[in-house]
Design brief:
alpha/beta; Leucine-rich repeat, LRR (right-handed beta-alpha superhelix); 14-stranded parallel sheet; 14 helices; 46% helix; globular
């Protein structure tokens, strides 16, 4: 058993559930939720959670927890050294709670710390910039923390600066600051850090709508020299044509970025995608590209299709909810017949008709790498059946290829062992 989910209303009324959990717990992950008071949290942490020696990952959805409740959570992660991953969904925790948690974090063995506000309209019940500073200060001397998620906590550029300032001296390689109040000036702070960064691998800035074109330009510019970041997500950040265009140069010069997510930036459009497609022709590292909800039409889709004839690394492409018609889909269909790399293609929610979906389905007959194809509702039952059969064929072919590679590797190792034994026997003679 790997994960246990438990919902309780209070320590006293749900003691039977908690006793059962404590006595028979052999899982590594626990999701605990409920309207627990701070007193309940104290008892649950002290009498139950501290005793779970196999517990490695815990998610606490405690919507009634206040700053005082954080004392007991901090004590839990400090004393139960088996806990490596902590995720908190809290509604009523502010700066003081963040300070308390930061002290517990500093003395813990955590590798991942996540703190989410459970709803948007929190006003003063978020950790804010001051709370972010407490967390940031704990980063300096924490040697095991790899992932930091501070989501929907009303961080502005000030809180961001505190975090970035201490990243270099920390072990954090994943940073998620989605749905905060970071704007283009904050993006400049991030850009300055990324220029010399050699530790951060994953950066998520989704729904920081103030980043816009100027912020995107700064981040894209830093990636022309950055050699560490592998995943960048800028969903719904108000980025338009001019911001997205800058990623064309990034795709040409960057050699480490593997995932780029621009979903939800509705003003990107065909012209910017044309330039990005030129960059894709030269890129040798990007594996996943998400351009869903980016205002992409037939022209932009055709440019992407052309790039995929040349690109040899992109395996996942999302183009949902754009303005792509039959013309763009026909271009993609021709490419799929020749592309030998793409594994996933999603084009649902566009404007193409049965003609386009049929052409896309038929293209699979000459493709042996696609294992996932999301066409959406514009496909009839017969075509769905054909797609399923052809995708299954590709899956089996890939399994066979992987099996063959494994056999070849085993054979290579056996040959090496045989040669070593021969040398050993020869030496003894």
């Amino acid at each position: 058993m790997s994960c246990v989910k438990l919902s309780i209303s209070s320590y006293h009324t749900d003691q039977a559930k908690l006793s059962e959990l404590k006595s028979g717990f052999n899982a590594t992950e626990l999701f605990l939720s409920g309207p627990l008071s701070d007193e309940d949290i104290c008892l649950v942490c002290k009498e139950v959670l501290l005793q779970l020696e196999s517990l490695e990952k815990i998610t606490l959805e405690l919507r009634e927890c206040t700053d005082n409740g954080c004392v007991h959570i901090a004590h839990l992660i400090e004393k139960n050294s088996s806990i490596r991953y902590l995720s908190l969904l809290l509604n009523n925790v502010g700066e003081k709670g963040a300070q308390i948690l930061a002290k517990g974090l500093l003395k813990s063995s955590l590798q991942s710390f996540s703190m989410y506000a459970a709803q948007l309209d929190l006003h003063d019940q978020c950790i804010g910039d001051t709370g972010a500073k407490y967390i940031a200060d704990a980063l300096k001397d924490h040697q095991t923390l790899k992932s930091l998620y501070l989501v929907q906590n009303r961080l502005s550029n000030v809180g961001l600066t505190h975090i970035i300032k201490n990243l270099s001296s920390s072990s954090v390689c994943e940073l998620d600051l989605r749905t905060n109040n970071i704007d283009s000036e904050g993006a400049k702070v991030i850009s300055s850090y990324l220029v010399d960064n050699n530790t951060l691998k994953k950066l998520v800035l989704n729904e920081n709508r103030g980043i816009q074109n100027e912020g995107a330009k700064e981040i894209a510019l830093s990636l022309t020299t950055n050699s560490a970041l592998t995943q960048l997500s800028l969903r719904s950040c108000g980025i338009g044509k001019k911001g997205a265009e800058r990623f064309a140069a990034c795709l040409v010069q960057n050699t480490t970025l593997q995932t780029l997510d621009l979903c939800g930036n509705t003003e990107v459009g065909d012209d910017a995608v044309e330039l990005m497609s030129r960059g894709l022709k030269e890129n040798r590292s990007l594996l996943e590209l998400n351009l869903s909800c980016c205002g992409l039409g037939d022209e932009g889709c055709a440019h992407l299709a052309e790039a995929l004839l040349v690109n040899e690394t992109l395996t996942h492409l999302w183009l949902q909810k754009n303005e792509i018609g039959d013309g763009g889909i026909l271009s993609l269909s021709q490419t799929i017949r020749q592309n030998k790399v793409l594994c996933l293609l999603s084009v649902s929610g566009n404007r193409f008709s049965h003609k386009g979906s049929t052409a896309l389905a038929q293209s699979l007959s000459q493709n042996d790498t696609l294992t996932t194809l999301d066409i959406g509702g514009s496909i009839n039952t017969e075509s769905i059946s054909m797609v399923d059969i052809l995708l299954d064929k590709n899956k089996q072919l890939i399994r066979y290829k992987n099996w063959t590679k494994e056999l070849l590797q085993i054979n290579k190792e056996l040959v090496q062992q045989r040669d070593s034994l021969k040398k050993l026997v020869h030496k003894k003679k």
